[in-house]
Amino acid sequence: xxxxxxxxxxxxxxxxxxxxxxxxxxxxxxxxxxxxxxxxxxxxxxxxxxxxxxxxxxxxxxxxxxxxxxxxxxxxxxxxxxxxxxxxxxxxxxxxxxxxxxxxxxxxxxxxxxxxxxxxxxxxxxxxxxxxxxxxxxxxxxxxxxxxxxxxxxxxxxxxxxxxxxxxxxxxxxxxxxxxxxxxxxxxxxxxxxxxxxxxxxxxxxxxxxxxxxxxxxxxxxxxxxxxxxxxxxxxxxxxxxxxxxxxxxxxxxxxxxxxxxxxxxxxxxxxxxxxxxxxxxxxxxxxxxxxxxxxxxxxxxxxxxxxxxxxxxxxxxxxxxxxxxxxxxxxxxxxxxxxxxxxxxxxxxxxxxxxxxxxxxxxxxxxxxxxxxxxxxxxxxxxxxxxxxxxxxxxxxxxxxxxxxxxxxxxxxxxxxxxxxxxxxxxxxxxxxxxxxxxxxxxxxxxxxxxxxxxxxxxxxxxxxxxxxxxxxxxxxxxxxxxxxxxxxxxxxxxxxxxxxxxxxxxxxxxxxxxxxxxxxxxxxxxxxxxxxxxxxxxxxxxxxxxxxxxxxxxxxxxxxxxxxxxxxxxxxxxxxxxxxxxxxxxxxxxxxxxxxxxxxxxxxxxxxxxxxxxxxxxxxxxxxxxxxxxxxxxxxxxxxxxxxxxxxxxxxxxxxxxxxxxxxxxxxxxxxxxxxxxxxxxxxxxxxxxxxxxxxxxxxxxxxxxxxxxxxxxxxxxxxxxxxxxxxxxxxxxxxxxxxxxxxxxxxxxxxxx
Length: 756
Description:
Keywords: Cell outer membrane, Ion transport, Iron, Iron transport, Membrane, Receptor, Signal, TonB box, Transmembrane, Transmembrane beta strand, Transport. It is a multi-pass membrane protein. By secondary structure, this protein is mainly beta. The protein is built from six helices and 42 strands. It has a 22-stranded antiparallel beta barrel. The chain has a five-stranded mixed beta sheet with strand order 1-6-7-4-5. Strands 12-11-16 form a three-stranded mixed beta sheet, with no helix packed on it.
């Protein structure tokens, strides 16, 4: 495994092959040469399947990367970004709706807060077909027809660009083929779940191939609204991805990808608890005062209006590869994406407080990356590149508060009553960066890899709020230099045992308070947020034993994030805003073990033991249990406390057994158990937002066989088999309340498909 890529490169040079020839259309043969070469009466050999995994990037040094093939994703039934955490420990994906989706790796990622602020990027980069997506919701379509998904932990700011100081997730879709192929899938399940998929790929000419994917997914709700009788929490989505692959010669290929996606979701948060503060429960006192009827403690709500969110998005990318003289390869990736989000948010009560609210978002992103890779197999190989990235983002937040005594009584003042509060935010961002990374093969056992990147960012924006604490920021401008560097040393103790040490540094983009605005008392400087910097290290080992039937990877990791970006809360405007806090530290142990004890049986365990703390976080927002009490301090010191959304232990255990049954049918059974300990759901570490630990058990079984020129398959699956009630997110609400987005209950379903 470790020398696989180097061996392949040596064979390629020996045969005079180039990297572009892998995509060359096959020659047309009029006879079966294998059959013609066999003597009469000879017994044909059985088909041998060779399993291997293409390296994500030839310049990527050894690290604790979780490499997930598309076949594994399909076998495990992983079709959503949020479900990747059930295969990759240390990854946390918190989803409220397509816009409010947050990624965290080893506790580093999004600075938190009760609402998304468009002025702050995540520390975890998401890439689709080598294109950086500025927000997770831009991952249009489900994870269908995927070649591979790599989860890379720790700073990745050299090869994977800016804003990857916490890590990166790189997803590659399958390319068009010059051999005709296709597949259809139909899944059905409880509560109206249905998913229809179709894929067709094949040649359009001798030099042009195409691929098209279509999908439709519907999920019924699982939270009952007692007021309307509706079931909330469901969604429906339509996706289309089309590709063209042009290979006019052996030294050039061009891949064009276009996708469109539209989705409607009905997000809902349930009341977890009306918490006590002292001897009272302020939330119940306030709701009783206005005559609201509160329900909680299960899959139910009682609200006179309901949330709805619309997403319309799409993109176009072009990747060209030239095989140059002497083994060099030049790659160009050009892309444009559009993301449109329109919510209709309401309060959680059965009386009118506010409705028709939310933050409309329009995000347009374009990028150009050019990269030159040297030939492989020499003493030193390298990659050089340049990236330009631009973004134009607009948001319009609108809060429609109801008129009347109930609104006045609930909020305790007339500051919201009858108001239509409007907020406009705008960002124009551009980044230009140069990068280089190279590997010295000092001997057969020693490799040293070093990389650097320097990015220059120019960001401008503006924020304006009217009809409540009116505020206009005026024009804002920010200019930043964002350096990154990495050093990796690896050593083969044995041909099957490789150790490595990685040291890395990176800086994430600064931020702007253009979603809610900063507190007026904080002054103009609070509108701009400085970049945060991350120093990281990893000491690990990768090994294969028992003729590759046992693989054991383990790594100790450490990261320190300074000036980390997070949120504070302004009571006057009742909104969060961005700040630079002190220092946080993430450290721990990560391991991945794969065992194949007998033919057809594969077992995998991956786990992360995490210690993530605020080393310095003074003047933090106080949790609700403190701020609502008598004589509450204005701020709290959270130094030494655990970082939110950082469970101490996460692990995933999976097993799959395949065998051949009667009538030459292929059968399988599989199981997956994903567990995580408790974590705080909000940045203030409120006990009210503490998410209990939970484990999810998924089971599946199925059959498959030949029919005509293709293969059919059918499976029966059971997700959340123990019907565990768990929270995907949990946030504090008004007056000591806590509201959370529940995960889906037990779901039984089946999938049938045909590959041809």
